[in-house]
Amino acid sequence: MRNAAEKKLPFFILVCILAVPFYTYAASLKPIIHNTDYNHTKYAPKCDPDDTLKHFRAYTTCFDGDYDDNSDGTPDKWAIQHWVA
After folding, report:
1. 71 in the Ramachandran plot: left (φ > 0), alpha (ψ -120 to 50) or beta?
2. How many CB atoms lie within 10 A of CB 51?
3. I want to staple 47 with a disulfide (CB 3.0 to 4.6 A). Which of 40, 62, 70, 72 is the partner?
4. Which residue spans within the chain are E strands per DSSP?
5. CA angle at 71 for the pair 82 and 74, rounded to the nearest 5°
């Protein structure tokens, strides 16, 4: 009968073998550096003054404003994107 360490050894080896490709792939990823000289909104439609324009690293988006979307009398902020550039 095998002891507990001998039973866990094949599982440990399997985990190590499967983890190596993921580790090497993650090591090759580079951080995204935001270029402030690039204008994401150059060809995008204008964002209404009531809407929210958000700048992220890789894109810019215009979110829905807080006006009444469902006609219940209260302003709604649903964070619906009008466009992404």
Report:
1. left
2. 19
3. 62
4. 52-55, 60-63, 81-84
5. 90
Domain count for the chain: 1
Alpha helices, H only, the chain: 4-28
Number of CB atoms found within 10 A of residue 82's CB: 16
Query: For residue 73, what pLDDT is reported?
Result: 74
pLDDT at 67: 74
**Residue 74 to residue 54: CA distance in whole angstroms:** 24
Q: Which domain holds residue 55?
A: 4-84
Of the candidates 35, 85, 43, the one whose C-alpha atom is nearest the C-alpha of residue 62 is 85
pTM comes to 0.50
3-state secondary structure of 19: helix
pLDDT at 20: 63
